[in-house]
Amino acid sequence: MKYIIIGLGNYGHVLAEELSALGHEIIGADISESRIDSIKDKVATAFVIDATDEQSLSVLPLNSVDIVIVAIGENFGASIRVVALLKQKKVPRIFARAIDAVHKAVLEAFDLERILTPEEDAARSLVQLLDFGTNMEGFRIDQDYYVVKFTVPEKFVGYFVNELNLDEEFHLKMIGLKRANKITNCLGISLTELHVKNELSADEKVEEGDELVCYGRYRDFQTFWKAI
């Protein structure tokens, strides 16, 4: 896919770099020449422009990309003006970053395809990490339900997968297992590599370092961790 990312601070820079690494075509834009210099070799094209200026913004191929992402966070006024100009130019798909509740409320008035809240999402992830006290990643489905990936507790090691009884005991549905394998890289260093087990037989045993992916209510995950 082809993206324009406007605003290449820490958030926009990582977004551009990661999307580019995945094979997407990225066009970056920022008012800062130093930010453009730091990303220009990692994306398809990068422009030093003031995106709040309508004429400067017209340099970008706004209507020939899949999504335009406004990643500006530190300048509330600039973010809102850029979004307003994009809507004026009838850009069909706009994602915009909001840094607080007021910013988000104003962006909601533009009826954008998606409002990004990275700071809020990062805070939620940290709360989950602190709450569970383990190596885990969570994806929020709605107010109550999550998909959570976590390293199997030590007490699970050696059990057959069908003996875990996560569904019956904790109302958690296991939807995947990632198997930990030891590999040696080109420098002779031993590393752990995880891959998804697409098929789980009845005699499959949980091994140390495996990761489980489960779906359920957040409070059920809390009950699960307290129980183990």
UniProtKB/TrEMBL annotation:
Pfam families: TrkA_N. It comes from the Bacteria. PROSITE patterns: RCK_N. Coiled coil: none annotated. InterPro entries: RCK_N, Trk_Ktr_HKT_K-transport. Residues 1-116 form the RCK N-terminal domain. Transmembrane segments: none annotated. This is TrkA family potassium uptake protein.
